[in-house]
Design brief:
Blueprint lengths: L7 H16 L8 E6 L8 H16 L2 E6 L3 H13 L4 E4 L5 H8 L6 E5 L8 E6 L1 H15 L4 E6 L4 H17 L4 E6 L6 H13 L4 E5 L4 H10 L4 E6 L10 E7 L1 H13 L8 E3 L6 E5 L9 H16 L3
Parallel strand pairs: 1-2, 1-3, 3-4, 4-5, 5-11, 6-7, 6-8, 8-9, 9-10
Antiparallel strand pairs: 10-12
Helix pairs in contact: 1-3, 2-9, 3-4, 5-6, 5-10, 7-8
Length: 321
């Protein structure tokens, strides 16, 4: 459920209070790190991974941490501004959509480092972490093209942001290698929260013949997994996290971002005074992006297909800049 904008200041105040308590002694000193997500941390994917990373920052660096959800552009900018005004050393805006807001806020708060996951450029003290998830989505496409019996595959996206569109295009291109002439269909929900809409979109794709699905839709994707569980003969590939547990017999593999690893690394640099704003890009060669095969579904494809996936994975990693 979307929170009314008028509640955000109170939510941020509560989050700041919790952060102070976590720091011990009721003091606001120390290394403080905040995370603003565009959706629920219960999505078992994009936002959950970032929240796990925030936990690692707390546990490994002894940081005082705080988190808030902010779904609309106005809420997102307000959250960034409030954390910066509170003196947080690092504020993570979790998603491409935070780039512009962070640049506006950073102009007034030069002492806070703003990290935009899936961001696009460096502006002053704003820097992006770029995740080349499309490299793993291409591998998912290779497997999907070999797996489909109907010759139709489907993709459900949340909002058509550039990183999500790039992942879809890589998925479709990979499938065309192992299944020339494959028909790749897609739909965007225009939100990341509505699991019911995700379920209906997936069922619509299945009615159009798609028997293998992929997604990048955060919490809305929980409905996509439900649709696959409800439809015999269909398969799905996870995104952003290892999502095999959501449909253990039907998830073939997942295109994974190790968000905790990336978030902890940059927070450590800031704490140690080693951070310089730059574009930090992660692909398969880094280990932050991975293609995780579900052992329980591996037998759905022959060893020759998995061998091709490994060869292409190694080729992509070797060609990385």
């Amino acid at each position: 459920m979307r929170r009314p904008r008028r509640l955000l200041p109170a939510l941020l105040a509560a989050a700041a209070g919790a952060a102070v308590a976590c720091g011990g002694g009721g003091q606001r000193e120390g290394f403080r790190v905040a995370l603003v997500t565009p959706g629920s941390i219960a999505d078992a994917a994009w936002n959950a991974g970032a929240y796990a990373g925030l936990g690692q920052v707390r546990d490994s660096l002894g940081a005082v941490v705080s988190h808030v959800e902010a779904r609309t552009p106005a809420e997102q900018e307000e959250a960034l501004r409030t954390y910066a005004a509170e003196g947080y050393a690092v504020v993570f805006g979790h998603g491409f959509e935070f780039q512009g807001a962070a640049e506006r806020v950073a102009a007034d708060h030069p002492n806070t480092v703003f990290i935009i996951t899936s961001g696009e450029r460096v502006r002053g003290n704003v820097a992006p972490l770029v995740f080349r998830l499309h490299e793993a989505s291409r591998l998912a496409g290779l497997a999907a093209g070999a797996l489909t019996r109907t010759g139709v595959i489907g993709f459900v996206g949340g909002i058509e942001l550039p990183p999500i569109r790039e992942a879809y295009e890589a998925w479709a291109a990979g499938a065309a290698v192992t299944r020339p002439g494959v028909e790749s269909r897609f739909t965007y929900l225009n939100n990341f929260d509505d699991a019911a809409a995700g379920r209906e979109a997936a069922h619509a794709l299945i009615r159009q013949g798609a028997d293998v699905l992929h997604h990048n839709a955060d919490a809305a994707a929980l409905g996509v997994f439900q649709a696959v569980r409800e439809t015999p003969g269909t398969w799905i590939f996870g995104a952003n996290a290892d999502q095999a547990a959501l449909a253990p017999e039907r998830v073939v593999a997942s295109a994974v971002i190790d968000l905790p690893r990336a978030i902890l690394a940059v927070a450590r640099e800031v704490k140690e005074g080693r951070f310089t704003p730059r574009v930090e890009s992660f692909g398969l060669a880094s280990g932050v992006i991975r293609f995780e095969v579900n052992p329980r579904a591996r037998a759905a494809l022959p060893d020759s297909v998995w061998a091709l996936v490994v060869r292409v994975r190694d080729s992509i990693a070797a060609a990385a800049p």
